[in-house]
Design brief:
The protein is an all-alpha fold and 74 residues long. The chain has three helices and no strands. The termini are far apart.
Amino acid sequence: MEITFVEWIGYAAMATLLISFMMKDVTKLRIINSVGCALFIWYGFALQPIAKPIIITNAAIVCINLYYLLLSKK
């Protein structure tokens, strides 16, 4: 059984998200979590048919992370 490129994107997203939760520094957690969510957004678009719930949820999480990252810079 061969793993497709789309599946590799999903696995990379999953691993990145899991790694983000091992961060003690909240800023690092939000940055790495955003990368994982961005990969999940890519994964959602790559699936056929497009997985709108995956895209919407992870886009919202990226926005929340960016909001708090920008808020912490002030």
